[in-house]
């Protein structure tokens, strides 16, 4: 086999201090000055230059919870989102397995946004042509960034919740033998990256905060890759609850709903193949307009929040850190902290997939739709959205009979794409997921061997 493109192992993504020092230093140097330098592959990590997990503990003046709400920050990953991690993991595993060859194959990236951006970016760094298949009603900032990285767009009808159409288009394009899909909804590198890298980063992030444990992990699934972190969190803290969030307007997991919504990147009208529903304890719903308005409050509501008792310096520290799905995750974390009656020593962990840089057009649309967005309006929104969040629309999936609904949803979604019932049934066994996770060690070894040829 030819030498594979030079890039990090899973262990190096989790613990960048294990990267050879000269490479680590050069990667940090190019991070701010040369976005398209391939050494940025070694900046795919939740950790900063001091090897500390990038996170923020939200001010309790905002959350009004007794528990600590800790948000892992994804905006400082290369390309501006943590989705670049599973994009790289899926591509490098394909290289290791000999299924994806430089100069021979074109990469397909089915996505509703951030994964597509990540695929476009990774392919630019690793020397592959890329086609990003995504809905035609996403934010302008997403399309612009994908084009800037040199990928082609193949747009399908609909919004962020119409991912089935992107999958169908991907399967059509896969008929051409030169095309290889980084299928985030069904390929296990996405699961492995988030269980190993995100899960262990979350465990490290709570050290020294509260009781140093995780009581609840909350994430809104698009591909459900991030939810895999919950598997590793439960291994460390068996009492932890894992919660999948959905838009109220598209509550597929909770109720079978399939509506349209405004939270880009989540609520994709399916139970994805890589979603380990064995470890999903609850599904909670968040109104899409609350997530969009919540972002407006964080970005532009400093005066309103100050009048409500949130210190200006704490508000300033939040600006720019979140996108719409990040606010959705924060609202879900607050909701579950109240619902579970968590106390001052308890920690709820969630993630912000990206930052505000790809959402100015979303706030412009909000301003167009609302007659008034004065300070008094933002104060009312803050009270309703953050301070007085409802404990309604939380669904308990811990009972095996109730969890069966999720297994049936997965069958409904994936049997039409050629997966057998026997394969889907194998996912009911915890050993299936442990065997997939164990492959991290194999790929680490092969990546090291093949990049040194």
Structural class: alpha/beta
Shape: globular
Tally of structural domains: 3
Counting DSSP H or I runs of 4 or more residues, the number of helices is 19
Query: In order across it, which strands form the biggest sheet?
Result: 1-2-10-7-8-9-11
Q: Kindly provide the radius of gyration, computed on alpha-carbon positions and rounded to a whole number of angstroms.
A: 21 Å
Proportion in helices: 40-55%
What is the N-to-C succession of helices and strands?
Answer: HHEHEHEHEHEHEHEHEHEHHHHEHHEHHH
Q: In whole angstroms, how far apart are the ends? A: 9 Å
Give the number of DSSP strands. 11
Q: Please write the CATH class name of the largest domain.
A: Alpha Beta
Approximately how much beta-strand content do the residues carry?
5-15%
């Amino acid at each position: 086999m030819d030498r594979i493109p030079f890039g990090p192992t899973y262990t190096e993504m989790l613990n960048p201090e294990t990267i050879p020092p000269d490479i680590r230093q050069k990667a940090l140097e190019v991070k701010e000055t040369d976005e398209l330098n391939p050494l940025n592959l070694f900046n795919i990590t939740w950790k900063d230059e001091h090897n500390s997990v990038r996170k923020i503990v939200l001010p309790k003046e905002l959350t009004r919870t007794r528990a600590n709400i800790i948000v892992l920050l994804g905006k400082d990953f290369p390309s501006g989102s943590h989705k670049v991690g599973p994009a790289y993991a899926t591509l490098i595993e394909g290289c290791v397995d000999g299924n994806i060859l430089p100069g021979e194959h074109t990469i397909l990236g089915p996505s509703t946004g951030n994964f597509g951006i990540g695929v476009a970016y990774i392919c630019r760094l690793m020397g592959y042509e890329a086609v990003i298949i995504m809905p035609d009603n996403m934010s302008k900032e997403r399309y612009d960034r994908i084009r800037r990285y040199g990928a082609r767009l193949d747009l399908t009808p609909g919004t962020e919740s119409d991912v089935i159409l992107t999958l169908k288009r991907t399967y059509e394009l896969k008929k051409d033998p030169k095309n290889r899909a980084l299928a985030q909804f069904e390929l296990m590198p996405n699961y492995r990256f988030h269980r190993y890298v995100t899960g262990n980063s979350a465990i490290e992030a709570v050290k020294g905060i509260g009781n140093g444990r995780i009581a609840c992990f909350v994430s809104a699934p698009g591909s459900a890759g991030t939810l895999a972190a919950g598997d590793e969190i439960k291994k460390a803290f068996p009492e932890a609850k894992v919660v999948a969030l959905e838009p109220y307007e598209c509550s597929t997991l909770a109720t079978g709903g399939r509506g349209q919504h405004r939270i880009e990147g989540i609520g994709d009208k399916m139970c994805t193949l890589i979603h380990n529903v064995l470890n999903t304890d609850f599904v909670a719903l968040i109104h899409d307009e609350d997530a969009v308005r919540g972002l407006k409050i964080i970005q532009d509501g400093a005066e309103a929040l100050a009048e409500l008792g949130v210190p200006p310096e704490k508000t300033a520290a939040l600006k720019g850190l979140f996108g719409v799905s990040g606010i959705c995750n924060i609202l879900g974390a607050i909701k579950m902290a109240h619902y579970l009656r968590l106390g001052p020593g308890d920690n709820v962990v969630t993630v912000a997939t990206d930052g505000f840089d790809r959402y100015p057009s979303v706030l412009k649309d909000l301003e167009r739709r609302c007659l008034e967005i004065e300070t008094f309006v933002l104060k009312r929104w803050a009270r309703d959205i953050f301070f007085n969040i409802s404990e309604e629309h939380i669904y308990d999936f811990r009972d095996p009979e109730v969890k069966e609904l999720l297994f049936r949803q997965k069958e409904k979604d994936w049997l039409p794409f050629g997966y057998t019932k026997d394969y889907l049934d194998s996912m009911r066994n915890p050993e299936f997921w442990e065997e997939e996770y164990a492959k991290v060690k194999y790929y680490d070894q092969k990546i090291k061997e093949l990049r040194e040829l």
